[in-house]
Design goal:
mainly alpha, 78% helix, 8 helices
Length: 229
C-alpha cells in the first residue's frame, strides 16, 4: 500500500494531468482558429504599419522619432513572421497517425482503466482528449497523448508494483513540478490570455471579435494610403 505522501502526490499528479489536458484542448482550439483566420490579417496590419512609417521616415529624414517608430514597426513585423514560422504545424500528419495516437491515449486515461481514486480526473482528461480529436486538433491530441505516455494515471491494484517509495516520491515530485511548469507556459500563451480576457465568450466569438478589429484597422490603413495619392 502506498504511503500517504505518495498517495497525495499521485492525486496531485492526476489533477495536473487533467488541468493540462483541458488547457491544451482550449488553447489549441483557439490557436488553430487564430492561425487560420486572424494571423494573416494581423500580419498584413503590421506590414502596412511598417510601410507607412517607413515612408514617413523617408519623407522627414531628420526626425529621429519617425526613424525609431519605423524600426520598432519593422521589428514587430519580423518578430511576428518568425513566430508564425516557428508555430507547430499539423501538416503531414495522416488521419491514421492521429487515430492511432488518439486510441493509444484513450487507453491511458479511460476511467475504467485507472485506479478508483483517479476516476474523476481521468474522465475529465478523456473528455478533453475526445473533444480535441473530434475537432481535428492534432497538436492538442499529441500533447495530451505525450503527457499520458510520460506520466499517465495509476493503474488498478492488479498492475505491477511501483518502484521503491523513495524513488517513486522523487519521480512524482519531478512530474508534478514539470506539469506545473507546462501549465504556466500554456497560461502565458497569447491564445489563453485572449480567451480569458473575453470571459464567457467561446473561441469563435473571440476570434470573430479579433477579426473585426483587424479588418477595421486594415480599412483605416488603406484609406490613409489612398489619401496620400
Amino acid at each position: 500500500m502506498m504511503q500517504p505522501d505518495l498517495q497525495e502526490l499521485r492525486r496531485s499528479l492526476a489533477g495536473r494531468l487533467q488541468e493540462k489536458a483541458e488547457l491544451e484542448q482550449q488553447v489549441r482550439a483557439l490557436q488553430s482558429q487564430y492561425e487560420e483566420e486572424v494571423a494573416p490579417l494581423q500580419e498584413e496590419v503590421l506590414r502596412l504599419q511598417m510601410k507607412r512609417l517607413k515612408e514617413a521616415a523617408q519623407a522627414r529624414m531628420r526626425s529621429a522619432r519617425l526613424r525609431n517608430a519605423y524600426h520598432d514597426a519593422q521589428d514587430a513585423y519580423e518578430e511576428f513572421q518568425e513566430q508564425r514560422a516557428a508555430a507547430p504545424s499539423s501538416a503531414g500528419a495522416s488521419e491514421e497517425d492521429l487515430k492511432a495516437t488518439y486510441r493509444r491515449a484513450t487507453k491511458l486515461c479511460h476511467p475504467d482503466a485507472v485506479a478508483d481514486p483517479y476516476h474523476e480526473e481521468a474522465a475529465a482528461t478523456f473528455q478533453a482528449l475526445e473533444s480535441a480529436y473530434d475537432a481535428d486538433q492534432t497538436e492538442a491530441v499529441r500533447a495530451i497523448a505525450e503527457d499520458l505516455d510520460t506520466w499517465g494515471f495509476p493503474r488498478p491494484p492488479s498492475a505491477p508494483a511501483d518502484r521503491s517509495d523513495v524513488h517513486a516520491e522523487a519521480s512524482l515530485r519531478r512530474a508534478v513540478s514539470d506539469l506545473k511548469a507546462s501549465i504556466e507556459q500554456l497560461r502565458a500563451s497569447e491564445a489563453y490570455r485572449t480567451a480569458t480576457e473575453s470571459a464567457g465568450a467561446d473561441a469563435e466569438s473571440v476570434v470573430g471579435a479579433r477579426k473585426q478589429a483587424l479588418l477595421q484597422k486594415l480599412r483605416e490603413l488603406k484609406r490613409r494610403q489612398r489619401a496620400r495619392f
